[in-house]
Amino acid sequence: MEFETKHEERDANLIREREKLKNKINRDLIQDENVLAVFYGGSIARGNHDRFSDLDLRIVVKDEVYEEYRKNKKERAKHWGEVLYYEDFPWAKHTVAHYKSFVKVDAFYYKKEDLKPSPYIKEESQIEYDPYGIVSEVREQSKGLHYELSPGEFELWRSKFFAHMHEVYRRLRRGELYYALHSLDMMRWSVAAGWEMENDRQPNTPGEWSKYEGERSPFNKNQQDLLAAWEAGREPGDINEVMREIIPEFKRVHNRLCEKLGEDERSDWVDEIVGLVL
């Protein structure tokens, strides 16, 4: 989907700018004796990045300097380029630096003990520096791991869908249309997350739409067409109708996930919950 922009020239150079930034990061960190390993996650590691992809940077440091490096995370990001602004919580182990080049870096700091075998490490770890084999060993230990839906995750998924569905109705009745649209969007997202779980893939964190649309989407044409069709503006009747249109696909996915887990679908119970608002 294209639109007119005055930034075509800048956008055409984003991959080159990202590589320049990445090279500066690597040079800076690799010469630091307190840095034990450097690797990248996300789309860079998976190989499905595009010019707008960011750098998901992972830095493993010695235990004794971890707190110092974590607190200094914003200052360290200035070593790599001209930072325009940050997304940052002082207490968190990461910071997001937005550079003037329109490239952003999500920099996470870890102690060695923080790295645990996981499907994420197996699938999303592009190692740049690992002289002690720390990341390589954890990645090797992760080889046999894969995502598997748990009963608790399933229960949370469907209960949040029901809650957002009921919230759409409440907010429409109150005239709080942006709130209603937010909850409608979370209903859409929940179905998309269900598609991921149906295919034994780890869904995004709640509300995150990254890679669910566009060329990098893991979904088939029918699924992408459904997402595109579930569109609503601020007209209450339209919002209510889209909510109604989402329900059949939710029920289908709900049925499939119940089969995966060997759980009773309880279709009458689901219909009772839906029937409170539709």
From TrEMBL:
Domain named Polymerase nucleotidyl transferase: residues: 24-80
Pfam families cross-referenced by the UniProt entry: NTP_transf_2
Transmembrane segments: none
Gene3D superfamilies recorded: Beta Polymerase, domain 2
CDD domains: NT_KNTase_like
UniProt name for this protein: Nucleotidyltransferase domain-containing protein
Taxon lineage: Bacteria, Bacillati, Bacillota, Bacilli, Bacillales
